[in-house]
Amino acid sequence: MGASHSAGTNKLAITAMSHVVHFTRDELLALQKEFLRLAKTNTDNENTINRKQFHDALHIVKVEESDKELLDRLFTMFDDTGDGQINFKEFVCGISTILRGTLEEKLTFSFHMFDVDNSGKVSPEEMKSVLHSMNNTVSYFGDEKADESKIDTLVKEVFAEFDANHDGELSFAEYMHAVAAHPTLVSFVTHGTEGGAGGAGGK
Questions:
Q1: Does 198 fall in a domain?
Q2: In terms of residue numbers, what domain contains 47?
Q3: Are 38 and 88 in contact (CB under 8 A)?
Q4: Domain count along the chain
Q5: Of 19, 52, 21, nearest to 38 (Cα)?
Q6: Which positions fall inside the EF-hand domain (predicted)?
């Protein structure tokens, strides 16, 4: 009876989750099964995954990523509680935005990805660091890997045009204007964070 009640509670929770993320109930149940299979190998908590397991977890949804700095940044963003562990809800909320988020959701996600020090603003150094990491794993500028100097030039152009108050950083509002207006950054936001993902099927 207890096991049946637990299973029923889980299905209700999954159904509720399907209304706030971009996955169907059946997709979430399938993802949860694979996530928990991986989590069982976590010696700290068999219901969560740690930083070392994160790369394998991304494989579940066919996201291929190999740059260590980028993986660390994504893990930190997914880990809402900051305890060094990611539970299923945290994983799904993060991956939902990356794979199927609206443009607004991806814009917001990318801002927080660039805002490495969580200051609420993005510096040129932060933007260059993340873009260089992404360029190491997959090209966001066409089929060929971008020349490193082109990334630096891109960042300079963005800040010169959209740093309205000339404080050397982009606020969220300034960033939203910049990324929405710049074709290369729009490509990054809408496709770049997918890392060549095949997704988990349409909703």
A1: no
A2: 15-100
A3: no
A4: 2
A5: 52
A6: 66-101, 102-137, 150-185
| Lookup: tokens for 185 | 């950054």
pLDDT tens by residue, 108-120: 988 999 999 999 9
Segments in the chain below pLDDT 70: 1-9, 65-66, 136-146, 188-203
Q: Contact 196/64 with Cβ under 8 angstroms?
A: yes
In a domain, 202, yes or no: no
Residues forming beta bridges with residue 49, ordered by sequence position: 86
Residue 3 within any structural domain of the chain: no
CB 65 within 8 A of CB 75: no
Q: Which of 72, 100, 128 is the last residue of a domain?
A: 100
> 115 and 74: one domain?
no
Tokens in use for 180?
């929405």
Which of 48, 74, 100 is a domain's end point?
Answer: 100
| Segment 23-44, tens digit of pLDDT | 999 999 999 999 999 999 999 9
